[in-house]
Amino acid sequence: MPDFSPIYVLISCIPLECLQWRFMQQALFALFLLAPMASVLGVEVINFRMAFFSDAIGHSAFAGVALGLLLAVPPRLSMPLFGLLVGIAIVAVRRKSALSADTVIGIVFSAVVAFGLAVVSRAGGAARDMQRFLYGDILTITETELAFLCLLFVFLAVFQLWGYNRLLLVALNPVMARAHGVRVALWQYLFAALLALVVMFSVWAVGVLLVTALLIVPAATARNLARSAGGMFWWSLLVGITSAFVGLVLSAQDWLRTSSGATIILTACCWFAASLVVAGKRRQRS
Amino acid sequence: MLATEVPALVRFSHVQVRRGDRDILEDICAEVPTGGSTVLVGPNGAGKTTLLMCLLGEQSYAGDIFFTGKTRRPRMAYVPQQLALDRSMPLRVDEFLALNRQKRPLWLGLAAPIAHEAAHLLALVHAEHLARCRMAHLSGGEQRRVLLACALAREPELLILDEPEAGVDVRGERLFWEVLDAARCKCGFTQIMVSHNLPLVAHYATHVICINKTVRAAGAPRDTLTSHMLMELFGIPIHLYPDQCDPHDPGCPLCGAVGEEAQVVDCAAARKARESARMAQYSDLGKHAHA
């Protein structure tokens, strides 16, 4: 297990009282890993018009936890694995079926939520466990999960370096991308798998209800502010990281005491509102 | 079947596509001459795009597609009808052209040689002034020329275009064909495209394949786009060449003969007639109900 204490020492140097607690340092570290991943994938989610897809994956968290309960597997292992499976299954059905993407996603969405609720309704004690996933709880993240997040972060960084251009080409026109030598299926599956894993971790941070917002709001803000496709990447990153930091710190203040996930998303939404004003002014000028 | 002795780059041999119990393409046998501008002509639902998709490997089919004189598939490029772009997408034209040329991701900026290459490609399609514009803000004609530039960047041996001029105004359409023809002559690729603009096909194509599930005619435009063939394909009289006009045909707009003049409708009278017809229908229904 890697030793993250130097990072915690670094975080403790930030002159904020709330960041002197270990659980807050862990939470901030986790958010600094998770927010950039979600923001950058959000850019591609918007390009692919896949907001509903990430919502379906997020909601499959219920079924993942339920499956864990049934098979006596820790929910924190069964959840990401099940999300991965659902993500790949949606892409596979979409590629083979003549049905439209939102219909396929809608069917999978309903099936996984229904399955999760059915299991929860049988096992009475599980309902409270489920609530944690509904609203998210980044403050309880463990060192093992942080280590996995670090691994995922490195993998995603390589993926973005290697695949950003290709994924954009696939989003614009898959037939053209394939004709121009891009391995469309490979990129679609890789993207879905990574997105599923990031969504599942984001469920811990902000909860099922807000997971799509963590992906979409920074990327949508970036669309309003950026002047190029490259700029969109950096704006999304900036909005995601600052929202995570400000949201977490605000939620820990005595005068606010709100859920950290909700506060992060509200901060991102403030960014979005400001970006609307900027975009409006820019349109007037042009 | 070929009008000239130019060898074929692509040969469709008994290509057949079925969807469910419906034949989309039946026994297609045709050739695409090397270096030529081949155009697929036919009504909607004739299977033109499906044939292009077979060529691209996007559609499964029975039969064979041979690439003559090649041990491998020729390097292909494809110009689609449109991209999935919405107006908020900040993708610039030079970035779009770099997507498949540059290994470095766009968020690390454009490499100088790639930006230079993009400018050169844009000049080739008369769009050098668009380099810094957003793709989503281009007009239909401009976007198609940029798509053509993107395809030319691959230095294709075979360029495939699916109705690239659909939704473009007359001037934009003409410019697109001009640019395409000049690029083909300069770069020396073989071209196969679907088009509905018959006068421009007659002007620019070197080889035409008339298709309606099967090949109805193939050859030089003047030999294939005859009024008889166009009547068979589209079910309306179209005369592309003056010498094919029938002087006794009162409805030939191309040679100047007009059968009936268009009329301005008397809206009030038409509305009155419609209402009285509806009233008559209601009274009939009432009688039936009583009976």
Query: What is the CATH topology classification name of chain A?
Result: ABC transporter involved in vitamin B12 uptake, BtuC
Mean pLDDT across all residues of chain B, rounded? 88
**E-strand count of chain B:** 9
Q: Helix-strand pattern of chain A, N to C?
A: HHHHHHHHHHHH
CATH superfamily of chain A: ABC transporter involved in vitamin B12 uptake, BtuC
Radius of gyration of chain B: 24 Å
The number of strands of chain A is 0
Identify the overall geometry of chain B.
globular
Q: Indicate the proportion of strand residues of chain A.
A: under 5%
Distance N terminus to C terminus of chain A? 54 Å
The computed structural class of chain A is: mainly alpha
Number of domains of chain A: 1
Strand content of chain B: 15-25%
Distance between the termini of chain B: 68 Å
Taking strands numbered 1, 2, ... along the chain, how are they ordered across the largest sheet of chain B? Answer: 5-6-7-3-8-9
Estimate the helix proportion of chain A, in percent. Answer: over 70%
Return residue spans of chain B where pLDDT drops below 50 for at least 5 consecutive residues.
Answer: none
Oligomeric assembly:
heterodimer
Cα shape of chain A? globular
- Computed over alpha carbons, the radius of gyration of chain A is 19 Å
